[in-house]
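=== RUN LOG ===
request id: a7f3
mode: sequence -> structure
chains: 1
length: 153
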Amino acid sequence: MSWRAGALLSLMVAVGGVVAVVMRRSEAESAAAYVDPVLVLIASAAIAPMAISLLRQGLRELMEAAPPAELRATIEAAAAAAASEYDLPDPIVRATRLGRRLYVEVDFLVQPGVWRVEDEDRVRRFVVDRLESSDYQLWATVELSTDPTLIED
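=== RESULT ===
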């Protein structure tokens, strides 16, 4: 979107320059002094909708911080695949997207004494490998816990 704003401003400066040159060579030379202020007003009015749109999008993102449905489905599929691959229960998945950053938390409630840290690392790598191909900077936490109070929603 910013390239459009830049292109529009460049076009307006070029048009304004041509108008000013033409006015200086004609009988409207005294009005040529107003070309720059009028150009600034027109450019501001033209760019304002784009700026407002970007502001709205940013505020929506901060308020919701939820990844788009397609990305959410990818995250849930990666977590479900890990559950299937490692014979784990259904995962609890939480995800937040802020700008280009994607924060993912996948929790599994497991039986005591069955899982080691190395096993948890394999599950984490499995999930992360499936999500790293996205266009986002990934911050992933995959946790195996025997205490349901630590992973509750």
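=== NOTES ===
The chain has a mean pLDDT of 87.
The first strand starts at residue 92 and ends at 98.
=== END ===
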